[in-house]
């Protein structure tokens, strides 16, 4: 068994090194893609302002751009607030089911003297994992 240990360690380190290189490459590619997306966004904003300037004064065009930008930022903040509320409801539901499970296990511990506390703990942990990973709780 000890002869397999260096082979296992070298295999794990090779996997970690490969994973690190892949993550670093992905970050670099996402940064370059983000740069191109930012360039496209800024070009779109400039086109929008130039289109507005054909029929309006520069002040009205920039004011319209300001209103659009503020509206988009408020919509984004509202979306994040909704997601945060959903996540807090989800975690509170998981925590309440965990507390009810703990109370249930505590009430059954006195009546099940033949079961060891380790088995009860494992059963409780399995129950919590299956409840927290159920598909009906992860739907929006």
Descriptive report:
- The protein contains 3 helices and no strands.
- The two termini are 49 Å apart.
- By secondary structure, it is an all-alpha fold.
- 86% of the residues lie in helices and 0% in strands.
- It has helices spanning 5-55, 58-111, 117-132.
CA-based shape: flat
Biggest sheet details: none
Mean pLDDT: 77
Q: Count every beta strand, where a strand is a DSSP E run of 2 or more residues.
A: 0
Portion of residues within helices? over 70%
Low-confidence region ranges: none
Number of helical stretches of at least 4 residues: 3
**Proportion of strand residues:** under 5%
N- to C-terminal separation? 49 Å
- The secondary-structure element order is HHH
Could you say which structural class the secondary elements and strand pairing correspond to? mainly alpha
What is the C-alpha radius of gyration, as a whole number of Å? 28 Å
Which keywords apply here?
140 residues; mainly alpha; 3 helices; 86% helix; flat
Gist of the model:
Helices cover 86% and strands 0% of the residues.
Topology at a glance:
Blueprint: H1 5-55, H2 58-111, H3 117-132
Helix pairs in contact: 1-2, 2-3
């Amino acid at each position: 068994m000890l002869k397999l240990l260096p082979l296992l360690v070298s295999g794990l380190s090779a996997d970690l090194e490969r994973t690190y290189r892949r993550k670093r490459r992905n970050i670099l590619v996402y940064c370059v893609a983000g740069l191109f997306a930012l360039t496209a966004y800024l070009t779109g904003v400039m086109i929008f302002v130039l289109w507005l300037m054909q029929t309006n004064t520069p002040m009205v065009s920039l004011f319209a751009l300001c209103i659009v930008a503020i509206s988009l930022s408020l919509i984004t903040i509202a979306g994040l607030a909704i997601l945060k509320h959903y996540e807090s409801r989800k975690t509170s539901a998981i925590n309440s089911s965990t507390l009810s499970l703990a109370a249930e296990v505590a009430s059954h511990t006195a009546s099940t003297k033949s079961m060891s506390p380790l088995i009860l703990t494992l059963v409780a942990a399995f129950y919590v994992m299956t409840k927290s990973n159920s598909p009906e709780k992860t739907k929006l």
